[in-house]
Design goal:
Blueprint: H1 11-20, H2 29-41, H3 78-85, E1 92-98, E2 101-102, E3 115-119, H4 125-134, H5 145-152, E4 158-162, E5 167-178, E6 185-195, E7 200-209, E8 216-226, E9 231-238, E10 245-254, E11 259-267, E12 271-280, E13 286-294, E14 300-309, E15 315-324, E16 329-338, E17 346-355, E18 361-370, E19 376-384, H6 388-396, H7 401-418, H8 423-437
Parallel strand pairs: 1-5, 4-6, 5-7, 6-8, 7-9, 8-10, 9-11, 10-12, 11-13, 12-14, 13-15, 14-16, 15-17, 16-18, 17-19
Antiparallel strand pairs: 1-2, 3-4
Length: 448
């Protein structure tokens, strides 16, 4: 008998078979069928595929991800589970999914007159019409293999609609919690956000897990349509245990005068890959996209971003920072594409990286592709180690080398945390990220 640990699996065939056996709402059947067809006809990424050349998908062949998780009891009680994602002093209403299954016990009762929040499977006829009008229309499945797979395996999802000319103060938090102790399984997560004209709201996506070794593959896809003069604050926090395989996407359509402020945090894993695509479709739109990634041990993380400026008078400010420790590997590919009609564009992209080990790796590739002549654009990337002069200064002040390394590393990303619009989210993230650099509380005493 072949040992399971030495087997290899045909992931593409498994994923397609799982998709064809998905039981979901009939009104989503056409979307599932289209996704399956695109996935089946799509070439599998290899090291010769430009956008995957530094990220291997071999991890998908090491375990059998052909099943969904069971709906058994949590391996931790409700209060322990809530500690993983709840944020003190943040006015948040939660929809919680455990191993891909909706948990009514952990979720809030959301009844507001400024926003509609509903699962696809519970949507009424009017909501179904809005969902069908937008779902799958912002992402281009032909260009994103796992977006097509997400559509092909779609059984449920979350629809959030911020209503016209209304401001929603409460944060809508969508939580995906995975737990240890189960056989390998797949999670298909889908979120659709529509911010109607003149509205303002905040969406927080939290991907968390307990501390036990995980056997999950998470395929998550978020689509956002931000209508004229609407503003969306968006946070995507990937804080899962390091054995998780996570492949995600966020695709946004910005209309005239709309604004997006999106912040991403990514801890490393076996494989973690996130594609962020923002389309400027209306004049005067603004995109503020920031993020930090912090792989360590032998973890891997990959961020691919693409900002499409299609119309005049739009602006983009994109900043990502990464800290790589031990034998970790990170990939950052940021592209800003200025179309011929996108005159008067103002766009800048900055990627800074800090290597804490001689064995850590970063592959960074900032790109500007400009076809308009009246624009102001800039891009840049840096790779460095801790500054020797700054280290000497801190040592001369009686600070230990270990504590100085923690303080300098944390300071590298703290500037971005300080800019977050929601202060409680800063306070939630600081101890989580600081602990990555200093396991001993004495090493983080001056930064927390």
């Amino acid at each position: 008998m072949t040992d399971v640990a030495t087997q290899t699996f045909d992931y593409a065939s498994q994923a397609l078979a799982l998709a064809q056996n998905i039981d979901g709402p009939d009104w989503l059947a056409d979307l599932r069928k289209d996704g399956q067809q695109v996935f089946e006809g799509h070439a599998w990424p290899t090291r010769k595929t430009e956008h995957w050349k530094h990220t291997s998908l071999n991890a998908l062949t090491k375990q059998d991800y052909s099943k969904l998780a069971g709906t058994g009891a949590l391996s931790l009680d409700d209060s322990e589970a809530q500690l993983l994602y709840q944020i003190a002093d943040l006015e948040a209403l939660q929809l919680v999914f455990v191993n891909g299954h909706f948990s009514e016990a952990l979720s809030s009762d959301i009844a507001l007159d400024t926003v509609e929040v509903v699962r696809f499977s519970q949507a009424n006829d009017t909501q179904q019409a809005v969902i069908k009008q937008n779902l799958g229309k912002i992402t281009v499945n032909d260009e994103h293999l796992f977006s097509a797979l997400n559509a092909g395996q779609l059984s449920d999802g979350v629809f959030i609609r911020f209503l016209k000319n209304k401001k929603t103060d409460q944060v809508i938090q969508v939580v995906h919690l995975t737990t240890s102790g189960q056989a390998s399984f797949s999670v298909n997560a889908r979120l659709l956000v529509v911010a109607e004209a003149g509205s303002q709201g905040t969406v927080l996506e939290s991907f968390v897990s307990d501390s036990g070794s995980q056997s999950a593959l998470v395929n998550s896809l978020t689509e956002c349509r931000i209508e004229d003069n609407a503003k969306l604050f968006h946070y995507r926090l990937q804080l899962e245990q390091e054995d998780i395989v996570h492949i995600g996407g966020m695709h946004v359509q910005l209309n005239a005068g709309s604004q997006l402020e999106s912040f991403h945090v990514g801890l490393g894993g076996k494989v973690k890959r996130v594609d962020v695509v923002v389309n400027h479709e209306g004049s005067g739109a603004h995109c503020d996209l920031k993020g930090v990634y912090l792989p360590q041990n032998s973890q891997h993380i990959d961020y691919h971003t693409c900002i499409e400026h299609k119309v005049p008078h739009c602006t983009t400010d994109e900043v990502f920072r990464g800290i790589m420790a031990d034998q970790a590997k990170a990939v950052f590919n940021g592209r800003i594409h200025i179309h011929p009609d996108a005159q008067k564009t103002l766009a800048q992209l900055n990627n800074r990286n800090l290597l804490l080990s001689n064995k850590a790796e970063i592959y960074t590739k900032p790109e500007l592709e400009i076809y308009a002549d009246d624009v102001r654009c800039a891009h840049g990337a840096t790779i460095a180690q801790l500054d020797d002069k700054a280290m000497s200064y801190m040592l001369s002040r009686g600070i230990s080398r270990q504590e100085a390394e923690v303080m300098m590393s944390f300071g590298f990303i703290n500037e971005l945390l300080n800019d977050l619009a929601h202060h409680p989210i800063q306070e939630k993230l600081r101890p989580i990220l600081a602990e990555l650099f200093g396991k001993d509380d004495s090493l983080t005493r001056h930064i927390l």
